[in-house]
């Protein structure tokens, strides 16, 4: 058993963990390991927004144009596709893509085929909206958690290795304790989201210090019928209620945006995997919701009370706390409540 924080990222603590050094967790969990040569990763959410069945073909063609770009030199090491309907009734397709270093991403982004497509005037006259939310947390600013060691989704799929069993889990506060920067920094927020550009066209949102992002996933692909029935009948409804709460009323508790998405294949067929993409003003506020809000506690109770009956269910998450200079959010032809647009303030106000 070892620390979730790899040896080359450990330093003398000035902030204590939530549990004593002799703590031992009740069940095994693993984290993804980052090579010593990696200084930051890139997490990119590339979205297409549309309303009405008559725009579906255009939306899928637009998404395919984005994912075709992933096949170019320096494209992402891994990516997946999702669909969801947002609170305003817009269908949204997202390609979540990951790079294991920022230099590769920067070269890809600078390619004429990529930069030219995003900057083209056609993006402003299209019948669909597009957006890209790009985060590049340093290796000391994110953590992962998996109850399995093969086929890691998300950022884990582009990293280098898997740990031995780790100690920092199965207690409130473990999420923070797994982030290397938490050894010396509370990672408190500073500033506010700022919007630049034309609200009816292209808008760039500038993030503030220490915006928190969590991707939290559920995979019931390999569950036998009785486990699937239990998950979909008793656990998933509580999760969906919590996700709807954050989507519709999370603003009051510090949640900037919450998307509960379902994975789809290249033809749009739903897969048996879902995840939340949730942005928060701070890690503190995310922790507070997880530890004390009824909407999350209902999910916690629903799962814990039935966990031993769904051993084939695969759950995971990744959490990042990102400095202001490592965030970029761009929305083109999107409605005003899309992503981080809703809580941004126009530049100069």
Automatic annotation (TrEMBL):
Lyase in keyword set: yes
Transmembrane segments: none
Positions of region (Disordered): 181-200
The entry's keywords: Heme, Iron, Lyase, Metal-binding
Keyword Lyase: yes
Cofactor(s) the protein needs: heme b
InterPro entries from the UniProt entry: OXD
Residue spans of biased composition, Basic and acidic residues class: 181-199
Protein family per UniProt: Belongs to the heme-containing dehydratase family.
Name by which UniProt lists this protein: Phenylacetaldoxime dehydratase family protein
């Amino acid at each position: 058993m070892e620390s979730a924080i790899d040896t080359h990222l450990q330093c003398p603590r000035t902030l204590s963990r939530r549990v004593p050094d002799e703590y031992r967790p009740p069940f095994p969990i693993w984290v993804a390991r980052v090579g010593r040569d990696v200084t930051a990763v890139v997490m990119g959410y590339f979205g297409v927004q549309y309303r009405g069945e008559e725009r579906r073909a255009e939306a899928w063609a637009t998404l395919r144009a984005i994912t075709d770009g992933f096949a170019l030199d320096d494209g992402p090491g891994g990516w997946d596709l999702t669909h969801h309907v947002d609170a305003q009734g817009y269908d949204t397709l997202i390609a979540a893509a990951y790079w294991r270093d920022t230099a590769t991403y920067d070269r890809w982004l600078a390619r004429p085929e990529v930069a030219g497509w995003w900057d083209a005037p056609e993006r402003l006259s299209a019948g669909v909206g597009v957006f890209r939310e790009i985060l590049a947390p340093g290796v000391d600013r994110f953590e992962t958690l998996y109850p399995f060691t093969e086929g890691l989704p998300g950022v884990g799929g582009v990293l280098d290795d898997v740990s031995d069993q780790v100690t920092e889990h199965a207690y409130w506060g473990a999420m923070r304790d797994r982030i290397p920067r938490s050894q010396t920094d509370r990672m408190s927020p500073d500033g506010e989201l700022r919007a630049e550009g034309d609200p009816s066209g292209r808008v760039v949102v500038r993030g503030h210090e220490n915006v928190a992002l969590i991707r939290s996933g559920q995979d019931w692909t390999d569950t036998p019928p009785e486990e699937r029935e239990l998950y979909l009948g008793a656990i998933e409804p509580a999760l969906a209620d919590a996700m709807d709460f954050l989507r519709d009323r999370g603003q009051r508790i510090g949640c900037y945006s919450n998307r509960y998405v379902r994975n789809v294949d290249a033809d749009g067929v739903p897969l048996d995997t879902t995840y939340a993409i949730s942005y928060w003003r701070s890690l503190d506020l995310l922790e507070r919701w997880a530890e004390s809000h009824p909407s999350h506690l209902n999910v916690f109770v629903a799962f814990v009370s039935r966990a031993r009956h769904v051993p084939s269910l695969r759950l995971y998450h990744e959490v990042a706390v990102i400095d202001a200079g490592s965030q970029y959010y761009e929305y083109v032809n999107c409605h005003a409540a899309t992503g981080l647009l809703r809580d941004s303030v126009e530049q100069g106000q």
